[in-house]
Write a structure and sequence with these properties.
114 residues, mainly beta, 10 strands, 4-stranded antiparallel beta sheet, 6-stranded mixed beta sheet, globular
Length: 114
């Protein structure tokens, strides 16, 4: 089974930027769609952004205009560019295939704080 590894998280001040990466151990070009989720303690995992094979994207209202999802099939990698970060973006971010989820990875922690 293809495995996914997230990276790129860290501590950033409000208004800052981060780019998350999701590297797959196999070919992602066959995936219908890929997604980014985030989760904070005590809350359910929240869908942040999705990208369908041809490049069509969708975003949660809370991140529209600030986050950009993209994928590079040649590198088997998906990205999430996050700009104008807010404290409420603090969470562990996970990537996955959609709609047939793979095993969830460890995620990458994003902390937005001054």
């Amino acid at each position: 089974q293809v495995q996914l590894v997230e990276s790129g998280g860290g501590l950033v001040q409000p208004g800052g930027s981060l780019r998350l990466s999701c590297v797959a151990s196999g070919d992602i070009s066959r995936f219908y769609a890929m997604v980014w989720y985030r989760q904070t303690p005590g809350k359910e995992r929240e869908l942040v952004a999705s990208i369908i094979g041809g490049g069509s994207t969708n975003y949660a209202e809370s991140v529209k205009g600030r986050f950009t999802i993209s994928r590079d099939n040649a590198k088997n990698t998906m990205y999430l560019q996050m700009n104008s970060l807010k404290p409420e973006d603090t969470a562990i971010y996970y990537c996955n295939r959609y709609p047939l989820f793979l095993s969830w990875g460890q995620g990458t922690q994003v902390t937005v704080s001054s």
